[in-house]
Amino acid sequence: MTVTRAEYCVIACAEAWRGDGEVLASPMGLIPAVGARLARRTFSPDLLMTDGEALLVGVDGTVEGWLPYRRHLALVTGGRRHVMMGASQIDRYGNQNISCIGDWARPKRQLLGVRGAPVNTLNNPTSYWVPRHSRRVFVEKVDMVCGVGYDHADGAPYHRIPRVVSDLGVFDFATPDHSMRLASVHPGVTVAQVREATGFDPVVPDEVPYTREPTERELRLIREVIDPQNARSREVGD
């Protein structure tokens, strides 16, 4: 079966939680949510999922436990949550901006605001999802640091950025100075396209693999169980 770009993005997002064990998965956005639910149903069965309010829920929405706010904060600040957030800007060291464009004292555009990004990034693993890869998002230096990157995270015991997923490919920080590295491109995308759409020079290995193919079971779960309405294609088209 033909795999769509959106489905490769789902797979790439799901892989962010591989090997995490019993941690709270906090996906923000449609495709990350599909990815987290897919990971829970397949290779990461110990993931904890929440309804966003006060309950732990199973993959079908069945209530599995109570998650009061104080317990949620304990997970957040103790490295036992892995959140996947969005980014209005992100730079080579993983600093993320969701607050403003331009000088903070006189911004050109007001965005969402800092919100919980510093706590997320300093106290638990944080990955990122970017549905429209462009030089406006992947910038040399963010206008304001909201999510903390590797060059600002000295001494933070739980700080880790496992991956950045975009509609073009997957990035990690597996380099000596923790600068962003192109880990894979989605089928149909070239390294040249990624370079052209990125506002800095990412580390690019001599050979860049394609994002892995979904299994037949994973495709069935995505298409028939998790997202039968194909909402994913509205976030990432082909």
What can you tell me about this protein's structure?
By secondary structure, the chain is an alpha/beta fold. It is 25% helix and 18% strand. It has 7 helices and 13 strands. The chain has helices at 5-15, 30-41, 69-77, 117-123, 191-196, 216-226, 232-235, and strands at residues 24-27, 49-50, 55-57, 63-66, 81-85, 89-90, 96-97, 100-101, 109-110, 126-130, 164-166, 169-172, 181-185. The strands form 4 sheets. The chain has a 6-stranded mixed beta sheet with strand order 1-5-10-11-12-13, sandwiched between helices. A hairpin with a 5-residue loop joins β6 and β7. α1 crosses α2 (30-41) and α2 (30-41) packs across α6. The radius of gyration is 17 Å and the shape is globular.
Structural class, from secondary structure content? alpha/beta
Determine the fraction of residues in helical runs and give it as a percent range: 25-40%
Q: List low-pLDDT spans.
A: none
The coarse overall form would be globular
**Strand percentage, roughly?**
15-25%
Helices, by number, come to: 7
Assembly state (oligomeric): single chain
Termini Cα gap: 15 Å
Radius of gyration, in Å, reads 17 Å
How confident overall, as mean pLDDT?
A: 93
User: From N to C, what is the helix and strand string?
Assistant: HEHEEEHEEEEEHEEEEHHH
Strand runs, count: 13
Instruction: Characterize the largest beta sheet: strand count, sense, and whether it forms a barrel.
Output: 6 strands, mixed
Widest beta sheet: strand line-up: 1-5-10-11-12-13
